[in-house]
Amino acid sequence: MKLLVAGVSHKTAPVEVRERLAFAENTLGAALHDLASRQGIVEALLLSTCNRVEIVVATDDATDPAATVSAFLQESRGVAPDALGPSLYQHEGRDAIHHLFRVASSLDSMVVGEPQILGQLKQAYAHAKANDCLTGLLESIVSRAFNVAKRVRSETGIGQMAVSVSYAAVELARKIFGTLAGRTVMIVGSGKMSELAARHLRRSGASHIFVTNRTYERAQELAAIFQGTPVEYTRFAAMLPEVDIVITSSGAPHFVLTKDEMQRVIVARRNKPMFLIDIAVPRNIEPSVNEIDNIYLYDIDDLQEVVNSNLRERIKEADRAEALVAQEVEHMMARLKVQEIAPTIVSLQGQLEQIRAGEIERARRKLGPLTPEQEEAIESLTRGIINKIAHGPISELRKQAGRPDGVHVIDAIRQVFHLKD
Amino acid sequence: MAEMSIVWLRVAAGLYSLGLIDSILTITQRRAHLFRIAVGALALAGVFHLVSIVEQGTAIGQFPASGFYESMSLCAFLITALFLFVYWRYRLESLGVFIFPLVFIMTLVASMGRPVEASWTSKTVRDAWLMVHVVLVLLGYAALLFTAVAAVLYLVQERELKRKKPRSFYHRLPPLGTLDDLITKFMSWGFVFITVAVIVGSIWAFVEFGTRWVTDPKIAISLFTWGIYLAMVFLRVSAGWRGRKAALLAITALGCSALTWAAHAQLQSLWLR
Fold first, then answer.
1. For chain A, which end, N or C, has fewer CB atoms within 10 Å of the first or last residue's CB respectively?
2. What residues in A contact B171, CB-CB < 8 Å?
3. What is the span of the domain harbouring residue A148?
């Protein structure tokens, strides 16, 4: 069995190339069918996303998978693989497994650690499965890749840190309050970003959202989106002591919240912490508010700084993830090795046992009835002999499994012992 | 101190203990269950306390403010009276958390102004009693240590969040809310342990040494540390001190406790005397 991954990704090819190779959702079934019906292809999987196109095949030993996949690309996409040059990567055997594990774990993604790719791979898997294109080796490798991705997510911090400004706001809120359950949010002004941040906060457990705006109608509209409460602009400052998180993005040319005002608010709150997110430019909240104990003020640049730091942290975590993936590849190879030689070992043992049983039968006919002690002696003598004989070839099989030219040795052993499949 | 005066003072201390229980419940459960009962008991105790002071005054034929025990008793009574007045006038319930334990401990100490004749019935009881004290103190210190560790983490994380330039601490330390919760819990339980330990320890020293022990500087340090602890708990529960200030306070309390512990490391000598 041979394994090949061929494809292009955002790392190797610009979008003009990727779009030429991409498979639309509705043509995927037909393409899979075409690929799987080619000579020598045993299993196949097609993964096509906006960032990558991957063709994964398992073929029988007599077939050259690279040539088959080239022909497939040529005929179905009208793209000659040679024309793709270095954009097209091809991995075989162990490298193919390594590549699949890395892709599933989002180590090869544009934003390292983003989990979408795993969902896309699961979809591709379901597609291939539905078209009977995953039946053995490749299936076990791909489902192992899902497990590897899960391990990477749970054992490294690769996916934990927010990499967008609005998620960074949620992450900071969590760092301040612990849980967001029961926290209330006030949105001052309107804007895409504040809407997005409020949506994330809401989904993370924030219990209530107040919305205020100079035009009350606008506040009402926005409040309707979050099942929140619109608040009159003149009244919002009086409500601040009740609010844990404030997001400001109004177009006001001056500070909407000043240090003196916030000082009063924090006293009224009996020092319960507050998180202020100022997304407006020019800023809505006096920057020195951050000096007040228990108030944390972040403006748009501060949030961006958090995102940058998180990205750096993700890259650090990616190193740990790579080690984990390498280790998993090692395990997979060991498992495949055993799978590969297991049938030969079983039939070798069966063959010898058959000979032994036949010879005992013949001996018994000659010797007549035996005492239980004699039976036992013959039994252990013959068993000892076949075990000694089997030891050499079995350890040789184990040694040769997985080696490139091991196939020949395995074949030779099968021939010598007259093993049938 | 005069015999009858001491009896009334002990009755007062018994009633004050209801206030202590109320404080402990307020601190650990964050709900005032017994407050009304405790205030009632406090008023009644105040009457007994006054009787005790008058009795003492008549017995010695002068104003009973001479000597440690008499002035302690008088001071505790004045605090009670003042609290009752403030409560009646301003309904300042939250002050109770601080006042109740303080008045109880002061009255308890004051009621030890007359040595008891009865000694320990057996050495086992005496040692067990002391062990209870030591174990409670150690539990209290352990809780305080956790409080202080959580406080240090809090300060680091708070600094990270204020600086807005996240480094690896930011990613690895727990959220402020969680730490604040931990500080509150450990501090409350530590306070309960230490308070009970102070009561048990005072009684032990009283039975063992009569009235001599109060002048021992180690005891003074212990009571001072307990006072700091009480102030910390009060500021947190009633005045809403949280975050950075509360964390600094917790670290101070740990420092004082370390001092007390150092002073008591020589307890053995006192004990074997």
1. C
2. 157, 161, 310, 313
3. 2-155
- What percentage of chain A has pLDDT greater than the value 90? 46
> ipTM higher than 0.85?
no
Tokens 């394994």 found at? A3
Query: pLDDT by residue (tens digit) across A98-144?
Result: 999 999 999 999 888 888 999 999 999 999 999 999 988 899 999 99
Residue of B nearest to A300 (CA): B164
Of A270, A294, A298, the CB nearest to B164: A298
- Domain end position, chosen among A124, A155, A186: A155
A326 assigned to some structural domain: no
Whether A179 contacts chain B with CB within 8 A = yes
Is B242 at the interface with chain A, CB within 8 A? yes
Q: Which of A11, A14, A30, A50 is catalytic?
A: A50
B243/A271 CB distance under 8 A: yes
- Nearest residue to A186 via CA among A226, A221, A153: A226
Q: Is-contact B133 B165, C-beta < 8 A?
A: no
Residue A327 lies in a domain: no
Q: Do A103 and A173 fall into the same domain? A: no
Residue B121: band (very low, low, confident or very high) from pLDDT cuts 50, 70, 90: low
Distance CA B119, CA B139 (A): 28
How many domains is chain A partitioned into structurally? 3
Q: Is A287 inside a domain boundary? A: yes
Query: What whole-number distance in Å separates Cα of residue A289 and Cα of residue A276?
Result: 9
CA distances from A367 to A33, A335, A379, A386 (A): 64, 47, 14, 22
Q: How confident is the model at residue A404 (pLDDT cuts 50, 70, 90)?
A: low
Contact A273 B176 (CB under 8 A): yes
Largest CA distance in chain B: 71
| Contact across the interface for A305 and B164, Cβ inside 8 Å | yes
The domain that holds A138 is classified in CATH as 3.30.460.30
Report d(CA A413, CA A348) in Å as an integer.
9
Residues A57 and A132 in one domain: yes
The CATH number of the domain where A304 resides is what?
A: 3.40.50.720
**A278–chain B Cβ distance below 8 A for any pair:** no
Percent of chain A scoring above 70 in pLDDT: 99
Residue in chain A closest to B178 (alpha carbons) equals: A178
Instruction: Give domain status of residue A318, yes or no.
Output: no
